[in-house]
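Subgroup meeting minutes
Present: P.N., E.W., G.H.
Scribe: E.W.

1. P.N. recapped why we're keeping a running log of single-chain structure predictions: easier to compare across weeks, and new members can see raw inputs and outputs side by side.
2. G.H. added today's entry (473 aa).
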Amino acid sequence: MPLQERSFAPASVLRQCFRRLPFGVGASEGRDRERYLRAARSAACNSVSAALGFAVVVLSVSFTLPYLGQERFGIWMTISSLAVMLQVLDLGVANGLVNLVADAKTSDDHETLQRIVTRGIVLLTAIGVAAGGVLVGVMMLLDFQHLLKIESPEVAREAVLSTFTFIALFCVNIPLGGVRKVFFGLQRAWEPHMVAAIGYLCSLPLLYLCARSHAPMPYLVLCTYGVQVATAIILLVRLYMERMFRLRRGIWSGSGLRDCTALMRTGGIFLILQIGMICGNACDPLIVSHILGASEVARLAVAQRLFQAITVAMLMLSGPLWGLYADARSRGEKKFIRNTLKLSMCVTTGTALFMSALILALSPWLLKVWTGNHLDVPIELRCAAAVLAVVEAMANAFTIFLNGVSELRPQLLAVIVFCAVSVPLKICLLTKFGTVDWVIWSTIIASIVADYIVYIGLFRKRILAHASLGPTA
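Output recorded in log:
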């Protein structure tokens, strides 16, 4: 039997499946099929990475909560949340690289692609150094014991050392985050996912060893966030081997200023969008810790992580579509965008609803197995986290579409509305009712208000025109 007849490679199976999906006609049909293949490959690799990442999240609670105690565990979760909260310090340049790289790839100009990638990474390196100086200066001015309401001076010193460790890793991760985004623009998102999976595999035994030896919090930061930062260097080496990243003299000569300006302009919009995400979730531990105390952060963290599998799974499905939307936009192929958007929103909403209901129903048993009755998570908090998981899944799928078609200004206005509603509402409701679930309900309310006013009320025609779903604005 010929070799090709005996082959049963996953790629061949995927090609057979995608022939049944609605594609374009003529030359676009082959591109549509190839885009879906790349997205499926990315989703498959992301599923491996997500499963391992979820295992790290689950086991980090089981391993460390018994010996850290509720207060120290809450502090560690607060420090861990800084990875999302401080990502705005890359000024949005990493996200701005995705569409610029996708446009350069469409033109098949390797010289332009190499120039954009190299200049973007160098710019992010400079931003990382500057961010490090700012963060260290801020740390010297803060009173951690008062800020997080820590009772023990010894625990406060441990928290400070853990935060300094995190800052060093975070500043290194700023240019490496840009490297990851380059692969999204190249429609090769599966490579960062596999590298992340390698990091999670390394973190699991390290977490176990830290738990066995009752290691202090700085070691926990190193064996989780630190390992992810270290493994990302693999991607930088790969770009160098493919001659997409080259450091040479005169790197900023010629069109260097124009490329830098384009990155900063696009990045500035992403910066404001990232600030909105911080208001949505990342600053919640700090707000809760300051108003209710660090011990309440532990309940919030466990409830959020209980439903984190939904967010991860939905990003696994929709995340790889960013580069695909950008490529289709560059070629003017609206039919692909329309079909993909419909499919993405339907699958995301249905899957998120099912998973959320299932996890909520099983949550008493899951929490008993997971935390060993070391922590009580009220049903009100679990219900709020379940609803938020569905809202976030739908919002993420739609945001990926908006990013891919470079429709950033409506997002900008939506973020402004969201921030104006979210932060005061969280502070007000937490102070009035004194239960941690209100920080999540505040996020849900602000998200719905902002989306309805901006996307449905103001920019509906303009947004849908990208997918030929409505008249051009």
